[in-house]
Specification:
It contains three helices and seven strands. The protein is an alpha+beta fold. The chain starts with a strand and ends with a helix. The protein has a single domain, classed as START domain (Alpha-D-Glucose-1,6-Bisphosphate, Chain A, domain 4), CATH 3.30.530.20. Strand 3 and strand 4 form a beta hairpin.
């Protein structure tokens, strides 16, 4: 089952500073919401454990993050593939990101597809809600990190 999503956000940071954050695995590891651990995979990607709190439980997801279609400083696609612990199934998240210079900084446009497999499909609505919250938190964190640079 696949769900598509998209959005835009205007950041107060310059395109180059924003690009430096979203294209850097180390920075992504620092700013990814709810990341419990982040480790390089040795091939340019990251192995990440994310803890998502839902209702009375915390679900940990083992993610592998990779960067594709990289065209500095305006475009890349972030690929996240993961398995929730104890639930079975898998998730695949592909998010093309485009950066555009605007007078106040950078416009970030993203569109993506979330694919769910196995028993994770039964948590689709909850995952959609969590995804929206995670994206909003990530956009704010990108801006904070880019402003530090």
């Amino acid at each position: 089952m696949t769900d598509d999503f998209s959005g835009t956000a205007d950041l107060g940071s310059a395109v180059e500073a924003t690009w430096a954050v979203i294209s850097d695995p180390g920075a992504i590891g620092r700013i990814l919401p709810n990341a419990e651990s982040v480790a390089p995979d040795g091939a340019g990607g990251l192995n990440i454990v994310v803890a998502v709190k839902q209702f009375l439980m915390t679900v940990r997801v083992d993610l592998h993050a990779t960067w594709h279609d990289v065209e500095p400083p305006n475009h890349l696609r972030l690929q996240l593939d993961g398995r929730p612990r104890g639930l079975g199934g898998a998730l695949h998240l592909s998010v093309p990101v485009d950066l555009e210079e605007i007078s106040s900084g950078t416009r970030v446009s993203y569109r993506g597809a979330l694919e769910l497999e196995g028993s994770v499909v039964s948590f689709r609505r909850q995952l959609e809600e969590v995804l929206r919250e995670q994206v909003a938190s990530l956009v704010r964190a990108v801006e904070r990190e880019a402003s530090r640079g």
